[in-house]
Amino acid sequence: MTTTDTPVTRILLADDHALVRRGVRLILDREPDLQVVAEAGDGAEAIALARGTEVDLAVLDIAMPRMTGIQAARELTALKPDLRVLILTMHDNEQYFFQSLKAGASGYVLKSVADRDLVAACRAAMRDEPFLYPGAVTALIRNYLDRVRHGEEPPEQVLTPREEEVLKLVAEGHSSKEIAELLFISIKTVHRHRANLLHKLGLRDRLELTRYAIRAGLIEP
Hints:
Elements: E1 9-14, H1 18-29, E2 34-40, H2 43-52, E3 57-60, H3 69-79, E4 84-89, H4 94-102, E5 107-110, H5 114-126, E6 131-132, H6 134-149, H7 161-171, H8 176-183, H9 187-201, H10 206-215
Parallel strand pairs: 1-2, 1-3, 3-4, 4-5, 5-6
Helix pairs in contact: 2-3, 3-4, 7-9, 7-10, 8-9
Domain Response regulatory: 10-126
Keywords: DNA-binding, Phosphoprotein, Transcription, Transcription regulation
Protein name: Response regulator transcription factor
């Protein structure tokens, strides 16, 4: 049950069909924590409205005149990095789905099931969680398996066995001196391995290395 002191998410809705906007607005405005505060008929208008209106979330159709929802998503996330974006579309299309993710959208909702999924997707976006319909999950898995099949290694395989050993020990809280003793290598070599790990994985410190080690299954959380 949503309480009265729950912050209200201010929504910008963009679709070139007024009838669709009206239907989507009915779905959203009946929720106490969601409120449509601006409506646009195309992507360019959505960007103009976002500049002058306080909004937390943009819900964008893909096929709109002047500027598509995907183009608008790219512009909006650059203009307002804190603004969350959802794509609401009739297209169950893998290419559109991946383009939407690249453009900065955190969710992809089909209009055919908007009455079931849209509210949950809005709330997920505001929690910084992705929302994907079942077909999109299938597409992601298929895309991943295709990349593996074509020789593109998953992230867990970019490390050498020695680097994995060092990563595991770092994540378990061992000092460089202890790691050197356990692996029979010099402290200088340990430092080099740690620097390589941070560089290869694009991480900054021990905490991030530990989180990565948990995700990779090297240590228990």
